[in-house]
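Sample pair:
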Amino acid sequence: MFLLFPTFFLSRSGLCRLNTVLLLVLLSGCAALPASDIAAPAAPSLRKEFRRAYDAAIEQHRAAVILASPVVIQDFLGMTLITSDGQRLRYEIDKTVYFALANNSHPPYGIYSIIAMQGYGELSAAQLAQLADYRAAILASLEGLSDIGLSAVVEQRLLTILERSRDFIDTISAAGTVSEAEFLAFVTPLRPLFSANFQLAALEQLRQFRAQMQRYKADFPDQDWQKLRVVVMGFHQPRQLWTPKQFFQWLLREPDYEHRVVYAEFQHPFFGTRRAEAEDKALELLTKVDFDQSAAAVFLGDRTGLGSDVLGGYAKDIIESWGPSTFLD
């Protein structure tokens, strides 16, 4: 974020140093002290003092505003509710159907990943070994598919994906080679099955999160749910149209820009032992987004002004004025 409005104030430590020098001068007299002994106070850095002021304000805003109302930190298939009195309640959806859909839709993508290591053509010994391992995993999944408790329609979809993946591995392993046309002939008929699985997986998340939020509201009627804020933790690749973010935007009637629902992008896992660290970072981001909106309204006349690069609009106009790039001509 480009910080448009640096702020200056004399820090307490800087003030003490200045007062010490002035006191020495007054008590001893200027002539009594060599010039080298009268140290001029260091000029405070605008950037340093702005960061000091901003960081202090963020810390106060987090305690007085953000955590004064309920906050939800959402992470993939779970979420943590923090109530205004500091309670933390953990919820995770029933993942049985979701992971059955995900794990058993992946084999064609996994096969593609193995092929992509060297590209289409002759398969190396290492690729053939990986395909054999993948085939064994597919067989194990086929054996346990009926034990999951899926509907007959869903089970048949997954069965089709698994069996065709097994058969394709057998075909290309026996040939020792694979072409793009062969792979497309294998995967194209499966696309409608992927689509149906994705739709059901989205429904699994949405209906369970919706039901849990209703339970939270019923269980904690004293919370100011009108001021609920949500920070959704996710990764860069699925950032656009991330399902949990869409859900909470719908729930809170969120506008297009980040207001009460904020997306926190991570480049490392935020599960297991790293969840506490990630939740703290997510809360910090939520606080900064909320604080910056009020500041942007004052300084820029637009609450959304600091939600993107404040130079961005100017840069866009400048770049458009240059016309098409000839860099690659």
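The CA atoms of residues 258 and 307 lie 7 Å apart.
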